[in-house]
């Protein structure tokens, strides 16, 4: 009896990891089984027809028989991945990168503006300062 329990434990808990089988995360519920990392209904079970998806479908995907059916712009188990347009569209630049670039450009602009203001002020002071006369520069007539 003990060897039977050990054999069952090996098949259930050890073999999936050694055989390269994908585990479903989160675990399958409502009578579904895990096949290649996806929760699906057994073919002979008619109770799966109206099963909810494990997680809600994203990006306007519809849940059908416990599986998300995605629009043409999205893919993935829960429609979480945006599909690039055929012309290479689809922004892949994160918002944080765009914000960082804007901050750097604003900083560079402020440094340039401060440098120009300093230069203009310096030139104005040089032009408005009266020239100093030395005693040696006096014309002897």
UniProtKB/TrEMBL annotation:
> Which PROSITE patterns does the entry link to?
EGF_1, EGF_3
Arranged from A to Z, the UniProt key words for this protein are:
Disulfide bond, EGF-like domain, Membrane, Signal, Transmembrane, Transmembrane helix
Claim: Repeat is one of the keywords in the record: no
Q: Does the keyword Phosphoprotein apply?
A: no
Which SUPFAM superfamilies did the record assign? EGF/Laminin
Q: Which InterPro entries match?
A: EGF
Q: Which cysteine pairs are covalently linked by disulfides here? A: 53-63, 70-79
Record domain EGF-like: where: 49-80
Which N-terminal residues, if any, form the signal peptide?
1-21
Q: Which residues cross the membrane?
A: 95-120
What is the designated name of this protein?
Tenascin-like
């Amino acid at each position: 009896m003990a060897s039977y329990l050990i054999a069952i434990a090996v098949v259930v808990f050890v073999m999936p990891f050694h055989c390269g089988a994908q585990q479903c995360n989160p675990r399958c519920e409502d009578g579904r089984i895990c096949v290649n990392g996806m929760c699906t209904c057994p073919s002979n079970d008619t109770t799966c027809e109206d099963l909810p998806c494990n997680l809600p479908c994203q990006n306007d995907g519809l849940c059908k028989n416990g599986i998300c059916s995605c629009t043409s712009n999205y893919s993935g188990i829960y429609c979480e991945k945006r599909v690039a347009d055929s012309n290479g569209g689809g922004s892949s630049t994160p918002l944080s990168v765009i914000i960082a670039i804007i901050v750097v450009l604003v900083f560079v602009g402020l440094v340039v503006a401060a440098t120009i203001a300093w230069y203009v002020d310096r030139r104005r002071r040089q032009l408005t300062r009266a020239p100093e006369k030395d005693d040696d520069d006096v014309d002897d007539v």
